Amino acid sequence: MKTKVVAVVGCGRIANNAHLPALTQIEGVRIKYACDLIESKAQIIKEKYPDKVENVITDYHAALKDPEVDVVYVLTPNYAHYEVTMAALKAGKHVFCEKPITVNYALSCEMAKEAKKQNKICNIGVCNRYHKSVEMLEEMNRKGEFGNIYHVYCSFRSFRNIPGLGGAFTNKALSGGGVLIDWGVHFLDLILYVLGSPKLTTVTCDTYSEMAKDMKSYKYNGMWAEDTKDVENGVNDVDDFVSGYVRTSGASISLNGAWAQNINHNEMFIDFLGDKAGARLDYCGKIHVFKGDTLETIDPEYDIPDMYLCEDISFLESTETGVHTKGHIENILESMKLLDRLYASAEQHKELYIG
Questions:
Q1: Distance CA 333, CA 106 (A)
Q2: Could you give the CA distance from residue 180 to residue 340 in angstroms, rounded to a whole number?
Q3: Terminus-to-terminus CA distance in the chain, angstroms?
Q4: CA–CA distance, 46 with 18 (Å, rounded to integer)
Q5: What b-and-e string marks burial along 297-318, b requiring 16 or more CB atoms within 10 Å of the CB?
Q6: Measured between alpha carbons, how far is 300 from 19 in angstroms, rounded to an integer?
Q7: Cα gap 231→148, rounded to integer Å
Q8: In this predicted model, what pLDDT tens digit does every residue of 330-349 receive, in sequence order?
Q9: Are 312 and 23 in contact (CB under 8 A)?
């Protein structure tokens, strides 16, 4: 692979915990810019990777004007995905944008159109498509090992874990939603991927925001992004619980998700129910296969490589080949449409058809 000159825009958790550790392992990657509105965040990354990160900036436009930069990683909060990605595409850069694509489906479609217009690769951070367990499930389904998968059930429920309460995570204008767009996007996207992208037909959904109506009195078990919370002056207008049902041209899908609930169990799994066999995926873990003909339970042994490293290598290679990989924005639009319609169903309190 030819040398890739990269600008990383957004130096928060997903940069520090996922993509920077991956990018610094890939031969031929130059991280010319680490950019964040809060300069100290970018500076921390440079100090952490002094031999890999060359410059610290606070205005991403400086990186877009640099002709050496050919790849931009957009790792900002949700609300900035659209603005930064569109600017990078128009500047002639390939873009990797973290999930969700944007805060809604309409803007996501605009982003896909711009990537096509500029003839640039735009991939979305759907890391689970690169998780070994998910790849195995997709292959098993493609080969017919489950027979007819008629239903998929997914649970992404946790106990009192609303992230950054009062900050960007719980402000709909900045995030686009709550637990459904934050956690649900991962679960629903990998389900659609495993099922082979069936046509969506109808959705029904209910969302709730019950656990932190009084933010000051909210007690929590844990809080991701606690440093961003603002319970004194912030906003909490997003869903902390969601329940939904989806019909497709193939399997039906039911889901329950909770950032916070008064049940002290984390239930993070997906069940694929087929007429020949079934499987449970422990989220970010391994699969358990249940055979109908032999009544066996099979727990295959396998290594799970770093999915972020696999995802980033695939994206960077596609910027050379031009091949649209499974993370390409055009392959993720249906997932965004599904989220959009689920939220619309909850708002309108009725089942909706998906055109």
A1: 10
A2: 10
A3: 41
A4: 15
A5: eeeeeeeeebbbbbbbbbbbeb
A6: 28
A7: 48
A8: 999 999 999 999 999 999 99
A9: yes
- Percentage of the chain modeled with pLDDT above 90: 99
Note the pLDDT of residue 355.
76
Please state, in angstroms and rounded to a whole number, the distance separating the CA atoms of residues 281 and 138: 12
Q: What is the pLDDT of residues 252-279, one digit of tens each?
A: 999 999 999 999 999 999 999 999 999 9
Q: What pTM does this model have? A: 0.96
Please give, one letter per residue, the 3-state secondary structure of the chain: CCCEEEEEECCCHHHHHHHHHHHCCCCCEEEEEEECCCHHHHHHHHHHCCCCEEEEECCHHHHHCCCCCCEEEECCCHHHHHHHHHHHHHCCCEEEEECCCCCCHHHHHHHHHHHHHHCCCEEEECHHHHCHHHHHHHHHHHCCCCCCEEEEEEEEECCCCCCCCCCHHHCHHHHCCCHHHHHHHHHHHHHHHHCCCCCEEEEEEEEECCCCCCHHHCCCCCCCCHHHCCCCCCCCCCCCEEEEEEEECCCEEEEEEECCCCCCCCEEEEEEEECCEEEEEECCCCEEEEECCCCCEECCCCCCCCHHHHHHHHHHHHHHHCCCCCCEHHHCHHHHHHHHHHHHHHHHCCCEECC
107, 86 contact by CB (below 8 A): no
Structure tokens at 224: 């991701």
**Quick count: other Cβ atoms within 10 Å of Cβ 285?**
13
- Residue positions counted in the chain: 355
C-alpha–C-alpha distance, residues 15 and 175, integer Å: 18
Reported as a single tens digit per residue, the pLDDT across 175-234 is: 999 999 999 999 999 999 999 999 999 999 999 999 999 999 999 988 999 999 999 999
